[in-house]
Amino acid sequence: MDKTLSLSSIRKRKATLDDERSELEFRLSQIDDHYEELEAAEDFVKRFGEQGEGSDMAAEPLQERLPLQPVIRAKTTREALLLALKVMQEPWQTAKGLRERAIQFKGTNIPMATVSPTLSNLKNEGLIIREGQKVALASRIIDVVRTINKEQFNAPD
Known about the structure:
Blueprint: H1 7-48, H2 62-65, H3 77-87, E1 93-94, H4 95-106, H5 112-124, E2 128-131, E3 134-137, H6 138-153
Antiparallel strand pairs: 1-3, 2-3
Helix pairs in contact: 3-4
């Protein structure tokens, strides 16, 4: 590969970075859209209950009334697992439960033989924490600890 610094190579690299930035901004907008959908679903469940108590919707499962298919598509198993850990209500997940949600983000099957080594790599990178058979996104656990400490000790951020 030519290592010569030229105006054309600089412009080409800038164009590549602009494309990458655009992709990331698009993905962030997808995350924001999905988050808004989840907030609306949460409000619905708070108002009407999980099985639509007192309404004609009681016999129909909530998932069928509110199809919350991921707006985001993960390109890799690693990406799908991290997204799943970020959006799942409970921070601590088993590999099996995490895999099921990650499959929705990826849109294709993810074999358990791929999930386990990927989780090990994420743990080695410090992105997840393992506690027995469950894993959690490290940043979510740190946020919970900060909140608890702040509440207990009334400490400023």
